[in-house]
Design goal:
Elements: H1 3-30, E1 39-43, H2 49-57, E2 62-65, H3 68-77, E3 84-87, H4 96-102, E4 105-109, H5 112-121, E5 129-134, H6 151-159, E6 164-170, H7 179-196, E7 205-207, H8 214-219, E8 224-227, H9 229-232
Helix pairs in contact: 4-5
The structure holds pyridoxal-5'-phosphate.
Pyridoxal-5'-phosphate binds at residues 43, 45, 66, 88, 172, 210-211, 226-230.
């Protein structure tokens, strides 16, 4: 990257990150959430290691990636930084070992067989892989995630797996416009959490909200919003 390009991407990412932090803080105030109760996960899939380095230099710690090999390549370039890596992509059985070894968090757990593989393959049982179970609400197009009916059994199975800690629930609703419609699936996820939480497994993480609907997610109790485009700009490939 030329010096001029690098300066301008620094400025762009700094401006965007600032705007996203302000949106999160404003939403916390507007919807009566405690200040700082919503964590920002920067979803950097497809974007360069250099962009991640810029955001990390601006104080961002949590980064989300969707493609295992791409993530591992970037992690190697960034291993001088203190970054918490989250896997937010679709889990494939033949990638669970790399996921278990290279990430602190997994957001899209929706299969007990994946859970067992990840648990067995987690290198250090003293630092369990922190997982959110993905729920498919109101027929999202990707079809990823379990239905609300299947969630109690998945939770029961996954919470017994050594090497994993089930932190909460995640959802990725179909895009829609308008705060009220955007809030509906997020409210459903919160209600599911309230029904299933126990003292032993409080499910305190609600991973929901992206660039276009983070306010709705914060309104309904998100503790982690997963933001890509609003920080790094449009993705030039899927
Ligand atoms: C890409 C991605 C995001 C970020 O989406 P934006 O709309 O770019 O903010 C969030 N969550 C998951 C699971 C993703 O794959």
């Amino acid at each position: 990257m030329s010096e001029r390009d690098s300066t301008s991407s620094h400025r762009l990412i700094a401006e965007r990150l600032d705007r996203v932090r302000t949106r999160v803080a404003d939403a916390e105030v507007r919807f009566g959430r405690d200040p700082g109760s919503v964590q920002l996960l920067a979803v950097s899939k497809v974007h360069s290691a250099e962009s991640i380095r810029i955001a990390a230099g601006l104080g961002q710690v949590e980064f989300g990636e969707s493609y295992v090999q791409e993530a591992c390549d970037k992690q190697r370039l960034l291993d001088d930084l203190d970054i918490e890596w989250h896997f937010v992509g679709r889990i494939q059985s033949n990638k669970t070992k790399l996921i278990a070894e290279h990430f602190s968090w997994v957001h899209g757990l929706n299969d007990a067989r994946h859970a067992h593989r990840l648990g067995v393959q987690r290198p250090n049982p003293d630092t369990p892989l922190r997982c959110c179970l993905q729920v498919n609400l109101s027929g999202e197009p990707s079809k990823a995630g379990v239905t609300p009916d299947a969630l109690p059994e998945l939770l029961d199975q996954c919470s017994r797996v050594p090497g994993l800690r089930i932190e909460g629930l995640m959802t990725l609703p179909a895009p829609c416009d308008g705060l009220e419609s955007q809030r509906r699936p997020f409210a459903e996820l919160r209600q599911l959490r309230d029904q299933l939480a126990t003292p032993a497994i409080p499910l305190s993480t609600l991973s929901m909200g992206m660039s276009d609907d983070l306010e709705a997610a914060v309104a309904e109790g998100a503790t982690m919003v997963r933001i890509g485009t609003a920080i790094f700009g449009p993705r030039l490939r899927a």
